[in-house]
Amino acid sequence: MTYEFLVSSAIGVLVAGGIYLTLRARTFQVVLGLTLISYAVNLFLFASGRLVIGRPPIWDKATGVYTDPLPQALALTAIVITFGMTAFVVILALRSFLETGSDHVDGDTVPCDRQDGLTQDGLAQDAEP
Amino acid sequence: MSFAEHLPILPVAIPALAAPLALLAMRRRRALGVGIAIVSCLLLLACALGLMAQVSGGTILVYALGEWPAPFGIVLVADRLAALMLVLTAALSLIALLHAVVTGADRKGRHFHPLFQFLLMGLNGAFLTGDLFNLFVFFEVLLIASYGLMLHGQGPARLKAGVQYVVVNLVGSSVFLIALGLLYALTGTLNMADMGLRVAEVAPADQGLLRIAGLLLVSVFALKAAVAPLHLWLPRTYAVTTPAVAALFAILTKVGVYAIIRVVPQVFGEGAGAAAWVPAPYLLPAAMVSAVIGFAGVFAARSLSEQAAYAVIGSTGTLLIAVAGWSAQSLGAGLYYLAHSTLAAAALFLVADVVARRRGSYGDVASPGPVFAGRSGIGLLFMAAAIAATGLPPLSGFIGKLLILKSVAALPDWRWAWGVILGTTLIGVIGFARVGSAVFWKSVEGESPQARASAPALGLALALGPAPAPARAPASRADLIAPALALALLAALSIGAGWASGYTDAAAAQVLDPAESARAVLKEAVR
To answer: Which CATH architecture has domain A2-124?
Structure first.
């Protein structure tokens, strides 16, 4: 019972944090939020085969009871796909920031160095007054 | 197994092979890579037509990958609906590829052709697969290829819209996985046909979870289909991307519609007990709102490509009004309109590109610009595309909308549906007329004297024009071929409407009878 509670509350906290970060305006937070959500999704997929302890997923002559191997395969596939997607979105966000001088997801053109009150050489010159 | 038995895997295998081959060939000789891409698209069309011929009699082809029996291994299922989508994809890809090659749009970035092939692989796989997790994987394949294609040519506007497009779709993928996890936990299977049989056995205590899973799944498909209120990502993405790519993207939203049509009757159909038709009540209002928003956008659009993007939303809404009836008749009408609206949207994007290439710095902005050579002819092309998109006779949009109106008359909410479809048609007609008259009738005097040169000097005029140097100035009218081809297909769909609507009606009847496909898929298990 406590084990189930631990996993489900972990998924819940990850999703909550992920949603909060995804709704932020800047790409870095959004990417972090997406990563948190994908962790939660992977845990969730893993748990969809029920949580059992100490049982093999594939044939083992020492035992007659098994855990479901399919969710583990699904979680692996999902991990690979999300990993590739995260790498892509990081590069895309960087590229977009370098070309447009703003890392706002919503298309806001406020330059971030100005908004943060920071002055970074090389970025300020791209910024619009 | 004979060659014909391997036919269902070919639409996935051909582009999967063509993409790396094109990538390798383009390093040495560009023309060879382009040739591989074109040959691949032609082969796909041949395969799709072959599959259509095989399944049009009502047989369901089941291809067990690696000969693993159905509920355990992954199967590809080719029925009438899948074959229809394959033919549509292949025809559209040929048109888009032709336009990209003729206009030189494929030269603006390195990997246009391999990405194009991977997108086709994802599309074909999504249409053929009989496994829900496999559907997710093919969605990801087509999405990651679409990210690359969407950013093709680069530029700040594309990067900006690209970030939003990618983030929205990543969130969608996560929700898709959550729905899949729920469905697997409840039914213990991922095969769609098997799941359709097992949802009835879900314990009463878990019915709430089953409903949540169904609604989440349909929400993801609605996001892909850009159904209101999940449509906000589409106009910017489609309006800023390369027009040849946008023309192919016209079918990306239809993948979402296809997934709704495939999954809802099969998994959440009559046999699903308390969870039967869970998403159905939400679909009709959402569809009507999207139709209104889409055609309002057509009315308010500031450029031809933005207008085409909103026309995609509007036509998806109209299509889903028909789908939401969930009767063989309305679904059949919807499928006919699906084929039509995909080609019509592609034609709009291509005509917008043709105009933008001739107007130099004015691009495809919906305001009067300089007179350009061949304006009246291109104006006629635009008019034909607009007629198709709004659904006026004589093109197939009229027949499609007529079929939809006739079929939804049986629904309890038919007054609303009729009002929305007819009202949006009127708004759309006015919107297209407004933009068309601004672009093709009015002109700004003295802005671009070169462009006033006579038709033979067209190439020169454009080379001298204020254009931000297009990749190749249109030395000929070759770039009119692709949009004309799309319109010719629409005319053919209109002339062959009897046969086409007969086929789509049969496809709809087949989709709405999940027991038949379950028999076809699961008999593999006892073989």
So the answer is: Orthogonal Bundle (1.10)
- Chain A residues in contact with chain B using a Cβ-Cβ cutoff of 8 Å: 22, 27, 30, 34, 37-38, 41, 44-45, 47-50, 70-71, 74, 77-78, 81-82, 84-85, 88-89, 92-93, 95-96, 99-100, 105-107
Of residues A115 and B308, more confidently modeled:
B308
Strands (E), B66-171: 75-78
Q: Give B-chain residues touching A105 at CB under 8 angstroms.
A: 163-164, 167
Instruction: Tell me which chain B residue has its CA closest to the CA of residue A77.
Output: B137
- Asked if A22's CB is within 8 angstroms of B167's CB, the reply is yes
Q: Dihedral through CA B81, CA B87, CA B93, CA B96, nearest 10?
A: -100
Of B147, B156, B173, the CB nearest to A88: B147
**Domain segments of chain A: what residues?**
2-124
Tokens of B185: 């936990």
Say whether A107 and B151 touch across the interface (CB within 8 A).
no
Judged by a CB distance cut-off of 8 A, whether residue B177 touches chain A is yes
Domain extent listing, chain B? 1-277, 279-495
Helices (H), B391-453: 396-408, 414-440
Q: Which amino acid is it at B452?
A: R
> Is residue A114 exposed (0-12), middle (13-18) or buried (19+ Cβ within 10 Å)?
middle
- Over chain B (527 residues), what is each successive 10-residue block's mean pLDDT? 82 95 90 94 95 91 86 90 96 95 87 94 95 94 92 86 91 94 92 89 88 94 92 91 92 94 90 81 92 94 93 95 91 95 95 89 83 86 94 90 92 88 95 92 64 40 41 65 94 94 94 87 62
Which DSSP symbol is given to B129? B
Record the pTM.
0.89
Alpha helices in B324-365 (DSSP H): 328-358
CA dihedral B294, B297, B302, B306 (to 10 degrees): -20
Is the Cβ–Cβ distance between B113 and B248 less than 8 Å? no
